[in-house]
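I have been asked to look over a protein record a colleague put together. Alongside the sequence sits a line of tokens, each denoting a local backbone shape. Please read both lines and tell me whether the tokens look consistent with the sequence. Take the sequence as given and treat only the tokens as open to question. I have pasted the whole thing underneath without changing anything:
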Amino acid sequence: MRKIFITISILICSVKLVAQEINLPQYVSHMADNPFLISPSYAGIGSEFKVRLNGVSQWLGVKGSPDTQSLIIDTRLAERFGGGITIFNDKNGFTSQKGIKLSLASHLTLSQFHDSFLSFGLTYNFVQFGIDTSQNNSGQIVPNKSETNSNFDVGLLYRYERFSISVNANNILDKKIENLLTSEPESLGRYTLYTSYVLARISNKIEIEPSIFIEYYESDKRSRTDLNVKVRKGIYDGYVWVGASYTSLNDQLFKPHAIAPLVGLKKNNLYMSYGFSIDLNKTQNFNYGTHMITLGFDYDRRPSLARCTQKMIIF
């Protein structure tokens, strides 16, 4: 029975390979102090040259479960421009995805009196999909397969003092389906909205940041909402933070999906965080949750002379 299942899985992956697209786990981004992964429009905000190395293991304890590693770099390129690079490797059973994302952002000042800013971001994606059949013990010959694909993401970010909201469209180009027998959709569009507000007490060096993240897939109409909160506390030469995220499935009448506690530390130029996601459905009986670790380095640069690329928060 297991051999039959492996064979069917490989064949299904072979058909669907053409229409796959990379989507990095979102709690790597909005809950790990790195909103650049949500939207390219965040690139270059702040004076640091940021380097983040992320590792995410989903559904721990399940053989062949998704495993993702990514290296993210973003920095200010000029007074009103920023850029970033994301290199990723994702493996899910017999399938794998490797690629690079190149991002560019432009920032405008709408009002210096009210600290009102508008940012535009564009990302070019190059992805290589692959199927490795070396572990196929079914007795049937299923060849390895590899495909490449390019696409684009666009983002728009508005900031007003400590409030921010971004809307983003990922994979804006439709996919050409080579196999007419496949039921895969041509559209791979994924749309997100992310908004947050920072409550700060400068005297106590404390920031509280509630946020909302909404994600919608055009292909199968799936959508979800994340309700998040982060608390940062300043320490000598850095800060510590704790956070939590609650995920519900919108297309299933806001059915509870997962809860994720996280914790992080910034000390001098070094950064690290850890978190895990606990499923709130029946799958929790078959796995040990999703675990994420982030290691990073921030190189301080000269602060920007333009207000639009300066941070409006303490940390």
In short: The chain has one helix and 15 strands. The first strand starts at residue 48 and ends at 57. The radius of gyration is 21 Å. The mean pLDDT is 85.
